[in-house]
Amino acid sequence: MSKSIIAHGKTTNEAVEKGLKELKVSKDMVEIKTIEDGEKRSFYSILTPRVVKVELTVKENIKKEEEKSDNSKNRNPEKRAGNQNIEEINQAAERLKNFLKAFLKEDIDYEVKIENFEIYVDINGENVNYLIGYRGETINSLQIILSAISNRGLSEKIRLYLDIAGYRSKRTKTLEDLADKIAKTVIRTGKAITLEPMTAYERKIIHTRLQSQNKIKTFSKGEEPYRKIIVALNND
Known about the structure:
alpha+beta, GMP Synthetase, Chain A, domain 3, Ribosomal Protein S8, Chain: A, domain 1, three-stranded mixed beta sheet, 6 helices, 9 strands, 22% strand
């Protein structure tokens, strides 16, 4: 059964935005029906506050498409080939080196290397925690910036991985341990568990860790930055 909510606002757009935020979905994922239009008011109600009511209903096929998409990624997490033009990749690596040289302090070391047509950036030094941020918010933002710099003007996207002071490897271990615990709980109780919102990088770690588990399945729902992983029994 599709999920529906009633949202209120001073304008139709405001009501719709509130509803989308509550459902944590994008506008193309819902059907919108205006229940009460604030413009259509009688003379006697002209002094009352204007309220627009809209009904938002999540489309029937959204959940199935999400599960199919994410399960496909789960079975083939490394399916996408990415850019394999080594000349473009070398040019991208040089752009990154020039940017990091100007961006980072002199006492911070960095390395940009190419492996299997992918770029790996490793940053180390004293007091680099500010580049990681709370729960990795800064390092995730920095990776987006570096990816944009490396992919500027290229024919196909290059995969880039950023690590700072070993944060990624530590975070990977934490998420893998979490995935194992969640899987055991789901198998024991039979109830699905929804994890907190994660980045695409972190969701991939969970999906990959649990892809060999026959008794459970993983899929994601919601829109960035609120997209979450659901771990459930595999009844297929």
